[in-house]
Design brief:
The protein is an all-alpha fold and 697 residues long. Among the domains are: 3-148, Ankyrin repeat-containing domain (Serine Threonine Protein Phosphatase 5, Tetratricopeptide repeat), CATH 1.25.40; 200-243 and 254-349, no CATH class; 536-684, no CATH class. It is built from 33 helices and no strands. Keywords: ANK repeat, Membrane, Transmembrane, Transmembrane helix. ANK repeats lie at residues 78-101.
Length: 697
């Protein structure tokens, strides 16, 4: 093709001049085979990228069958055919149009080993996925659902957090539940590395928790609708003519659905179940799931629940909060529910503790499951089994803090408590090492686990108490500052120590250190940082406290209006403003002196590890409280004394001035409130709160 013609063809495609492209094709049919971008895309690739459905349809209808097969098999630099692109973008019309001309393109792989079916699942394009699945010749063949690194569509959808689609894939491809990639990871392993998808690892403020609880009904409705998703209907609808509707069709139907007072019930569920049977979703399993579910609200309350949620959003908009915030919390809860559903399905169907006890065959085959045979090409059976022994889902869940997964696995497979990683750390040791209070509390309630697993040591001879005493670089606790981190580190150490079995004895690790010695050594730098922060804070606050004490002493000795020369009694005695002045000046003096003493006692402290638990935080809390009290009292006493020297005509005018004088102090107090509340909560909490901003990598 001439360079000028190539340049024109590129410009036509970039500008969307598809009529000119058709004219160029009529003059020279070879233009369809030309690769016109650096990514080696053809005209058909580009037209699919920009969703030119009419152009693709017209073009394929006006060329021969052999030619259409040739251009549809052309791959770009990534190995993607036009069908790969259409599946990735979720364009069902183009997928149907291409597949009906050459259904073998469904099995075509790119350089990563991904089929169009795989790409549709990875990007969460549910409709395109069902379309391609329905066009497969052998729907029981799951070879198209893997890529070169061994990841399946179930691995990828869970990794991309498309849990609704993952649930349906589990029903359509049950063998994929036990499939492992080249790293020995199953879909359950992938899910265990996603703590943000579970409620136990999501930290929310009080108002967020309230909205989260109120959105329970809406989430149940969405969950029920997800469970009743009609798979066969999706496939049949997309293998036939795709119905086009106006873009605002969905919005209109949603609005009209709010006007309904009742919804369909059992008939819809029965029909859905019958159709799902056509796609190897067993009716017995579906019925068992329905019997297990206990909804808080009847199904026919869906419309009323939606109206309630809509009213709640409107109320929040009136108060300036915004509906997007509520929708965000609802989406978060729906993700939590769906992730838990996927987790339950994977644990119930997985053969977690069967293959560990089966030796590989002499020929290196892995007989742990039918879906694993001949799938792991770069690993022998011995290597695959060894990787699965070193990586256990319950260990990952204990490390990331997914309480739901740890509890479910232990309920179904009690033997999982004996799982250990390459460092010989079991569930208990990993939960303690990674500061997971919820996991530790769950394990601590089981007496059998407490008597066995709590006594295990790792390869370095470290017991549970040693790991509780070991401090690492990241700061897991949900408190600011090194001093408060040190406080909760010591509380965590004491919590683990006090919950050990009665006859547990402290032992030495391989380095010859006890847990107490490990705590002192590993927390030396943190204690140094905490003492430095406390020293600077106390120095700054003590200066302020000294100034307030000086002013308060001067103020308390001055009498507004002066005393009576004969009796020495203040002339203004008995007036409300004078009483207020007398009381507040005394409070300011006493509280400022108390604050000064507290901060000076912090400066003279020894800053031992145990001092950070109660002694130092209590002094700091008492010092801040009395400092705030003294500042407020000084201002009130000033306003009360100044009130007597203002003329009657100006008394009402000075009130705004008094209020403005108090604004800086009020702002300072508000800024310090988070620290004040953190100190207060830390004083009364026995179990530290973990921050889930630091996730497992």
């Amino acid at each position: 093709m001439a360079e000028i013609e190539f340049e024109s063809l590129f410009n036509y495609a970039m500008r969307g001049q598809w009529r000119e492209v058709l004219e160029a094709y009529e003059k020279n049919p070879q233009v369809l085979e030309a690769k016109i971008t650096k990514a080696e895309d053809t005209l058909l690739h580009i037209s699919v990228y920009v969703s030119q459905t009419c152009f693709v349809t017209t073009l394929l209808d006006n060329i021969s069958q052999n030619m259409s097969r040739n251009i549809l098999r052309l791959q770009n630099s990534k190995g993607n055919t036009p069908l790969h692109v259409a599946a990735e973008l979720g364009n069902v019309d183009i997928c149907n149009n291409i597949v009906k001309r050459d259904h073998t393109l469904i099995s075509c792989r790119n350089l990563e080993g991904e089929t169009p079916l795989f790409l549709a699942a990875v990007h969460g394009k549910r409709d395109a996925f069902f379309c391609l699945h329905g066009r497969q010749q052998n729907k029981d063949d799951d070879s198209l659902s893997r890529k070169n690194n061994g990841d399946t569509i179930l691995h990828s959808t869970i990794s991309s957090e498309y849990f609704g689609l993952a649930l349906q894939i589990i029903g359509m491809y049950p063998k994929l539940v036990n499939a492992v990639n080249y790293d020995g990871l199953s879909p359950l392993h992938i899910l265990a590395r996603k703590p943000n998808c579970f409620r136990s690892c999501t930290r929310m403020e009080l108002i967020d928790r309230i909205i989260y609880g109120l959105s329970m009904a809406g989430s149940i409705v969405e969950e029920d609708k997800e469970e009743r998703c009609d798979i066969s209907h999706n496939i049949q609808a997309h293998t036939k003519t795709f119905h086009h509707c106006p873009m605002n069709y969905g919005t209109c139907m949603t609005f009209l659905s709010l006007l309904k007072l009742t919804t369909t019930g059992k008939d819809t569920k029965a029909t859905t179940s019958d159709e799902e049977n056509n796609f190897s979703l067993k009716s017995e399993q579906k019925q068992a799931k329905k019997e297990k579910k206990h909804y808080r609200f009847p199904p026919n309350w869906e419309s009323m629940i939606r109206l309630l949620i809509l009213a709640m959003k409107a109320l929040l908009i009136v108060f300036g909060v915004g509906a997007t915030w509520v929708e965000k919390i609802q989406r978060k809860k729906e993700k939590h529910i769906q992730a838990k559903q996927v987790m339950n399905e994977l644990i119930q169907r997985a053969s977690l503790y069967k293959y560990d006890f089966i030796e590989p065959s002499p020929h290196g085959e892995d007989h742990s499951g039918g879906s694993d045979k001949a799938k792991i090409k770069s690993n022998t059976g011995n290597e695959a089994i060894e990787k699965r022994r070193t990586v256990s889902p319950i260990l990952i869940a204990a490390k990331t803090g997914i309480t739901e997964m740890v509890e479910k696995i232990l309920d179904m497979y009690p033997v999982a408590i004996h799982d250990a990683d390459t460092e010989n750390k079991n569930v208990v040791l990993l939960a303690i090492e990674n500061r997971q209070p919820h996991i530790y509390s769950l394990l601590n309630k089981r007496s059998l686990i407490k008597e066995t697993a709590f006594r295990q040591v790792d390869k370095d001879g470290n017991s549970a108490l040693h790991l509780a005493a070991t401090y690492k670089k990241f700061r897991p606790w949900r408190v600011p500052g090194a001093a408060m981190q040190m406080q909760w580190e010591y509380k965590w150490y004491k919590l683990v120590k006090n919950s050990m079995p009665p006859n547990f004895y402290e032992r030495y690790n391989k380095d010859g250190k006890t847990a107490k010695q490990v705590f002192i050594d590993t927390h030396a730098q943190l204690a140094k940082e905490g003492s430095k922060w406390l020293t600077k804070t106390s120095e700054s606050c003590s200066v302020v406290a000294a100034l307030v004490a000086t002013v308060a002493f001067t103020t308390s000795t001055a009498i507004p209006g002066g005393p009576n020369q004969d009796t020495g009694i203040p002339l203004l005695q008995g007036k409300p403003a004078f009483k207020l002045f007398a009381v507040t000046s005394l409070v300011a003096l006493c509280s400022s002196v108390t604050a000064l003493v507290m901060f000076l006692s912090i400066l003279t402290s020894r800053f031992q590890e145990k001092d950070f638990v109660v002694d130092l935080p209590r002094k700091l809390l008492l010092g801040l409280t009395t400092l705030f009290t003294s500042i407020a009292s000084v201002l009130i006493s000033f306003c009360a004394g100044h009130y007597f020297i203002v003329e009657d005509q100006l008394k009402y005018a000075v009130y705004p001035v008094y209020a403005a004088t108090c604004l800086p102090v009020s702002f300072f107090a508000l800024v310090q409130l988070p620290l004040y509340f953190d100190l207060t909560l830390a004083m009364f909490r026995k179990v530290p709160q973990r921050s889930y901003k630091v996730f497992f990598h």
